[in-house]
Sequence to fold (147 residues):
Amino acid sequence: MFLTIRIILGVLFIVSGGEKLLSPLANFIFVIDGYQVVPAALQPAVAWVFPWLELFAGLFILLGLWLRPALMVLGLMSLSLAGIVGQAILRKLPLENCGCFGELVHLPLGGVILIDISVVALTLWCLANIKKASVFSLDEWYARTGV
Fold:
């Protein structure tokens, strides 16, 4: 069960971060600008750093490497994103899709909040059951072999 959750979370964020990294930086800056929460001067830095965080957190969760910190990063990112999308809905910002997966998948904002809250719940569940979540992980392997 927890291995399946790790695979789903890992692949979800590897794809999300990877799609943003493969697309022009200007595309993600445009998405960030649409939410109107990040000052214009910081948008390029956020657009550059955020996809790498998604990619590496997803990869670490998939592999089970530094699983606890990776789950914490992913959970905090998803909680933040739920808040950002929520404020966009409340402010009735003219966003047609979230930009979560670049041009790969277009999702309505309401659906994104459900996904983000689900990710937060799954990361918290994995953190509360970290031993079970670590089955077939590099963390478990390193602990067993002493490497």
Observations:
- Residues 1 and 48 are 33 Å apart (CA to CA).
